[in-house]
Amino acid sequence: MSARTGWSLGARGRETGTALLFLLPLFVLVVGLIFYPFYRAIWLSLTDKLVGYPERFVGLRNYEYLAQDDAFQQVIWNSVVFTVVSVALKVVTGLAMALVLNNLIRARNFLRGLFLLPWITSTVIIALTWRWMFDSFPGRGFLNSFLLDLGLLSQPIAFMATPAGAMAAVVIANWWRAFPFFGVSFLAGMVSIPRELYEAAAVDGAGASRRFWHITLPGLKHVIIVTTLLSFILTINDFNIIYVMTRGGPGTATQVFATYSYQVAFGQLRWGRGVTISIFVVPILVVGIILISRYLLRDRR
Amino acid sequence: MSQRHVSRRTVLAGALGATAALSVPRMGFPAVKKGTALRMWILKTYVEPTNKAIEASAQRWAQKHGASVTVEYFTFEDMQTKYVAAIESKSTPDVGQLETGAPARFAGMGQLLDLSSFSKEIDSQAGKAPANVAPVTMLDGKVYSIPWYVMGAFWYVWRDVLDKAKVKMPSTFAEAKEVAQAVTRPKDNFYGMGQSWNRTADGYGVMQSLMYSYGVGWADKSGKYKSIKTKEMQAVMKWATDIYKDNLQPADTLTWTGSGNNENFIAKNVAQTSNGPSITFAMENAVAKATDAKDKKMKEEALANAVALPHLGGPDGRRMQAIAMSMGVFKGSKDPEAAMSLIAHLVSPEETVMVMKDSYGQFAPVLEKAKAASKDYFNKNENYRTFGRAAEWFAPTGWPGPVTAAAAEVQASNVLTDAPAKVIVDKWSVDQAIEWEDKKIKEIYDTLKG
Lengths: 301, 450
Fold this sequence. Notes:
The complex is a heterodimer. In chain A, 76% of the residues lie in helices and 0% in strands. Chain A is mainly α.
């Protein structure tokens, strides 16, 4: 009996050792690529690190500075507007796209591939294209040329010259790039909803809108939450579209976390402060992720 | 007797001393070991032939010494990013081309080699740089880079437009505004001026020229912070914002990126703009690429009508903030002697003139001998004569003080152009914007003290 126990303990020990060995590469990757950079970022945010100089611990001085910095307050507001409006537009149009594609019998796969083009195109190309669309350079900007040719305008409109116009332009570019991802994800979710539910609802006299509110939307709940969360993270950290289209201007009208962090870290050479700007986003994202994870887990239970 | 008792140690020491003495580079000719490999970073300008000419010059040096040079480019856009990444990852090049604020910034970080004695050799070989340009290469009395050329900014105007409106060529900012008022025709989508307060040299560079020409500096002669809350600064800010309020510019001017003013000027949407000679480069190229005689004639006329005037002056004189390019050796270089030899070759009058001839006027040499040798080239026409005088009006970032890390940061923080944007976009008052700008500048100087 004791010999058998000893054998089983030895075998278990060997198994554990083998398991740890297999887990080691993953552990190294997680520590090296996630924990260490994150720890380093937190540490830098607590220092006065200037490029080329050793860092000195300054406690929460960078956070205090940013809390009082009027430019940073504008950055927070701009980031919230840019992210919330973009993501909301993506959800609505993504749903519309999925509903249309779901009801198509012919060419659904072809159209699904076609709609994914903006998603797979380089962000810089997209930003340059939208900059050209909104351009008011005579005879060049697409929208202005189109409206002038139709006789609807007598003078080109400088779409991106006002704070609201510039913000709208970057939101539209961001929305256009990502809504197909929402559409395709929602379509995949819709396909997995049992058709019997729709048939039973139709037999009970439910119209299209009631079927949408009571079957489609609840059926897509998890997909909507996950895609919205992913998009929220990507959008609030977006750099390329704004940098290429407006550089954060006019003035500071479209300056967001990523562009301001870049300016402070690489232009002003203040890495400590630049990293702190990025760290400010983390609590917002962590809270969002925790809330959504708890919600999903509760639902699963 | 005592001479006979020379120990082995003394003999060895003597031999080593003699070897060392022989290996010390002769004046002006730093030693280069065969097979030496160097990395050099240079600016990629809009004028492609200049980039190629610098690269070719470096390769001539490599061939002469049996060495190799890998030339890598940075652009106006990623200049700072590339150097920052290299400094933090300890992968700086051996030789780097440095813009106006870089020598002070990088030397302060301890990244650049002290070239004080090497610069004396260069002085004797190639001559000195003008007194207003030389300080750009110095920090605390030591020389950290060798000045090479100034890439100036000029005030471009369409001569035919001004002639038609019977207004004279502007010489000051105030006159330029009057010209703009006289020629603006919004109905035809034609405007008197195109001056963007954006985040490029076309924005913060012109803002500095405007401030310095009105006698406004945010630092004193010793480089310490000085308040800009003055009546002169009010006049600066008024000029900078009135050109927008009075609708003398296209409505999208504030959104232009680096090429916006070039495009709008060449397309004749605006009568005046500030720019480097890249406008002339584009227009000379257009003539060369003309498809037929009629097209060529039209483009030649356009080229003759696009006049580059000296940058505008103000009540306190004419001061032009521009890019003063110099060459530095990074401390991380494995072969500083070879790096210095490469710089000596590049800045020599012969090589400088060869590069300059492919620059379409944007490369105005600053070292005496090269400057003297460039006279014929810059006598080509009135625009080139103006280009050749770029160094004359040059004022460094942080005028009237020396370039310091704090002065360079003021420029990099965009506060100089964000202030007028606050008046134009956010409808702040001029005084509010100056107050805000002054506070931000003071903050930069205060936090860089420690």
